UniProtKB/TrEMBL annotation:
<protein>
    <recommendedName>
        <fullName>Glyoxalase-like domain-containing protein</fullName>
    </recommendedName>
</protein>
<dbReference type="Pfam" id="PF18029">
    <property type="entry name" value="Glyoxalase_6"/>
</dbReference>
<dbReference type="InterPro" id="IPR041581">
    <property type="entry name" value="Glyoxalase_6"/>
</dbReference>
<dbReference type="InterPro" id="IPR029068">
    <property type="entry name" value="Glyas_Bleomycin-R_OHBP_Dase"/>
</dbReference>
<feature type="domain" description="Glyoxalase-like">
    <location>
        <begin position="22"/>
        <end position="163"/>
    </location>
</feature>
Amino acid sequence: MTHPSAPQSAPTPEPAPLHWKLVVDTADPHAQADFWGAALNYVVEDHSSLIERLLSVGAAPPELVVESHGRRAWRDATGVRHPQDPYEEETGVGLGRRLLFQRVPEPKTVKNRLHIDLHTEGGKREAEVARLTGLGATVVREVKEPSGEWVVMADPEGNEFCLH
């Protein structure tokens, strides 16, 4: 029993949830961002104001920049974000659901250890397969198991994802 005059220890505060993004290694970050932005109905991030500011003060060399969608973009990285999630207006960086695509020199060689599952409305899987293949995805295989049915697909660089 605690004595009434004994000091009480303060409750340990719960840690805040971590902010995260899924990073995808890629040969062409801008093509991947365009594909995944269209596939998910996400917004391709606009980092042009940050880039312009860094270029103007000499903090970033011009060779790190390319033109994409009529604006300056980082050559080796870009992202897509959920259109309703917050983002930093100053940098264009999403603060919520976000995929970042970064250029790497080596090609994809093995199956993904992490993949994205996309979920369609009931009865619309075939239409979504057609839409995604129109964007550049390919069908890898159709799965029919007692636990459910889905289509394994690959994005334009061969990264697998599942369409439920």
